Automatic annotation (TrEMBL):
The active site is at D128 (proton acceptor). GO terms for molecular function: 6-phosphofructokinase activity; AMP binding; ATP binding; fructose-6-phosphate binding; identical protein binding; metal ion binding; monosaccharide binding. Allosterically activated by ADP and other diphosphonucleosides, and allosterically inhibited by phosphoenolpyruvate. Keywords: Allosteric enzyme, ATP-binding, Cytoplasm, Glycolysis, Kinase, Magnesium, Metal-binding, Nucleotide-binding, Transferase. This is ATP-dependent 6-phosphofructokinase. It comes from the Bacteria. Transmembrane segments: none annotated. Pathway: Carbohydrate degradation; glycolysis; D-glyceraldehyde 3-phosphate and glycerone phosphate from D-glucose: step 3/4. Its main location: cytoplasm.
Length: 323
């Protein structure tokens, strides 16, 4: 293996830079040339790229976002688009591609590899943790800590004013962020798409809490919650609890930014090394992940076709402690 490509695609996540750095430095260690493509698959189609050496990735391990930038590229969804991308990879003499991104990015990578016989390796980078085959995705831990920090601040004002806060967090169709952060901030209710909750249950819990002396409450709502968003939930609750001082906070894109946590930097570094080693071993169409503390691989096909399950035990724990 003499030359590989690397790109970041889909939604950005803190720790993507650490993964790029790890891929580049592992290649340098093994005498492999690396080309970094800008703005995901768009950069491959446009041949917007440059050679990355060890120094090109200096001072980025601590930075959020991605130095290669990310994009959503409609053209890559077409066979013609992927043909252009493949032609550019071939022209540069690239023998394998590392794709850092989410399941959409892996679907594109898988198609490219199947159609044109170029090896691809996936590294899961998304704050949502919604990828099958890995216990953690890069960016999840940082996003959790950002949410916990933000909600702690809201709690200060919630307790001072006896308020009920509905706080909406990211996660797409998954409730990983809401469930884990919800436990960490001591939320009264955690509403996630994996669990069907009725409004009645939420209201009963809030009432019981007040009867038991609770003066303020935090309800964490995952953006994919099927009952509705935080604003809707707050409006519906107000109809049943008119004397409650209810506020809504949607945390939004702040959850995607910030310096990656130690856990995300270490994870990204481990997966970057693993991805290059997979290419060197002649493997393709696998995603590198981490399971029970060890680096593992899973077929890209499984990573994109299966859904990771929410930890029911965590739901149970949240229930026990949110009296
Ligand atoms: P995140 O979960 O953080 O949003 P993602 O990788 O799932 O990340 P997407 O926007 O779904 O984000 O995908 C990123 C890019 O991957 C798309 O813009 C497109 O270029 C490519 N892609 C996604 N789905 C496909 C597909 N079905 N076929 C080919 N390419 C695809």
């Amino acid at each position: 293996l003499k030359h590989i490509g690397v790109l970041t695609s889909g939604g950005d996540a803190p720790g993507m830079n650490a993964a790029i750095r790890s891929v580049v430095r592992t290649c340098t260690h093994h005498g492999i040339e690396v080309t970094g493509f800008y703005e995901g698959y768009q950069g491959v189609i446009d041949d917007n790229a440059e050679t990355l050496d060890a120094r090109a990735v200096a001072h980025i391990i601590n930075r959020g976002g991605t130095m290669l930038r990310s994009a959503r590229c409609a053209e890559f969804r077409t066979r013609e688009g992927r043909q252009k991308a493949y032609d550019n990879l071939k022209k540069r003499g690239i023998e394998g591609l590392v794709v850092i991104g989410g399941d959409g990015s892996f679907t594109g990578a898988s198609l490219l590899s199947d159609e044109f016989d170029i090896p691809v390796i996936g590294i899961p980078g998304t704050i949502d943790n919604d990828i099958y085959g890995t216990d953690f995705t890069i960016g999840f831990d940082t996003a959790l800590n950002t949410v916990v920090d933000a909600v702690d601040r809201i709690r200060d004002t919630a307790t001072s004013h006896n308020r009920l806060f509905f706080i909406e967090v990211m996660g797409r169709d998954s409730g990983f962020i809401a469930l884990n952060a919800g436990i960490a901030v001591g939320a009264t209710n955690i509403l996630i798409p994996e669990e069907s909750t009725e409004l009645d249950e939420v209201i009963t819990k809030l009432k019981t809490g007040r009867e038991n002396g609770k003066t303020s409450s935090i309800v964490l709502v995952a953006e994919g919650e099927k009952m509705g968003d935080a604003l809707f939930m707050a409006e519906e609750t107000k109809k049943h609890l008119p004397d409650y001082d209810i506020r809504v906070s949607v945390l939004g894109h702040m959850q995607r930014g910030g310096n990656p946590t130690c856990a995300d930097r270490v994870l990204a570094t481990r997966l970057g090394v693993a991805a290059v080693e997979q290419l060197m071993a002649g493997h393709s169409s696998v995603m590198c992940g981490v399971r029970n503390g060890s680096v593992c691989t899973v077929s890209i096909h499984d990573a994109i076709s299966r859904k990771p399950g929410i930890d029911r035990n965590l739901m149970h724990i949240a229930e026990i402690v949110s009296l």
